[in-house]
Amino acid sequence: MAKGGTSAGSNSSGVLRKVILSYTYVGIWIFLSFSVIIFNKYILDRKMYNWPYPVSLTMIHMAFSSGLAFLLVRVFKIVEPSASMTRDLYLRSIVPIGLLFSLSLWFSNSAYIYLSVSFIQMLKALMPVAVYSLGVIFKKDVFSSQTMTNMVTISIGVAIAAYGEARFNLWGVTLQLSAVCVEALRLVLIQILLNSRGISLNPITTLYYVAPACFLFLSLPWYFIEYPKLLEMSTFEIDFMTFGLNSMIAFLLNISVFVLVGKTSALTMNVAGVVKDWLLIAFSWSVIMDKVTTINLIGYGIAFMAVCYYNYAKLQAMKAKDTQKVTSKDDEEENLRLLDSKLERLEEALPPTHKNGA
Domain boundaries in the chain? Predict the structure, then answer.
């Protein structure tokens, strides 16, 4: 009796420990993601730090990530490089992904100059729509009228939120929507170019391979767009504390994504992302003093409910798939047991001479 009580107590404490760790991972990811967004807004916004150079900021992030990833992989050897990475694979897979990643970061960081943090988070609710639509186009997802209805609902909610936006800026919206589309294409290409070949990279090796390519791609628009403007700023001096801290938080965010997905699931991160978005909207309204209208909240509320239903449907589909795998495995094992039983009965039915001959 005492042993049973001890076993039950240890099981409950183990479950409690897992729950606490899961919430810890979620909390760290939300904090780092929240910090990167607010920090980038602070640097790029003309009314705050007033350094409106998104390409330069993104290049600083990529240079920092490249250097730190190189140290972790090649010098300290904390992480091993991918054994399957070849020159051909790098050029065919990593380079296109790096191009899309650089464009996504460039466009999304540029949007902070023109739009409020709260409105940007509302526009990001369109990410499932873009990922699913591209997945259907590239035949990585199966078309479903129910899912498409859900995607349309999300789009309508975001459209209502945009209609009620007090600081609507067409160029800013174009930049953010472009960032969503490019990022969705990057995620789909990762499935096609890497995951389908059985290649998986953790965030450190991903940055080790992708960040240098991003830096090179960004150097071209930087040279023609921002470099001439920076030359005119004769009084500007690099603030190593501000940009160094900003880059370190961005690097840690990539690590936290790997830990969160590895210890929980991608679905958990999606749900945590919804919580983070509401926190950012509240922070943007109460601290940064961005205006959030009632129509904003109604529209985003519709999109929010549709995104929640989409995540719920994905969870149910994952459970059904797992159940189907277990059932299929049980059926296979049962068939093997029946076959063994039939063979045993057949051997018993054979005359002794046949058994000896065998």
Answer: 9-357
Measured between alpha carbons, how far is 176 from 339 in angstroms, rounded to an integer? 60
The model carries a pTM of 0.83
Structure token digits, residue 214: 């991003």
pLDDT one digit per residue (tens) for the chain, 358 residues: 555 555 555 666 767 787 788 888 889 999 999 999 999 999 999 889 999 999 999 999 999 999 999 999 999 988 888 888 889 989 999 999 999 999 999 999 999 999 999 999 999 999 999 999 999 999 888 899 999 999 999 999 999 999 999 889 999 999 999 999 999 999 899 888 887 777 778 888 888 999 999 999 999 999 999 999 988 876 667 789 999 999 999 999 988 887 776 677 666 777 788 889 999 999 999 988 889 999 999 999 999 999 989 888 887 887 777 777 666 666 666 666 776 666 666 666 666 655 555 5
Alpha carbon 340 to its chain's center: 47
Contact 28, 271 (CB under 8 A): no
Report d(CA 105, CA 283) in Å as an integer.
Answer: 22
* DSSP, residue by residue, 313-328: HHHHHHHHHHHHHHHH
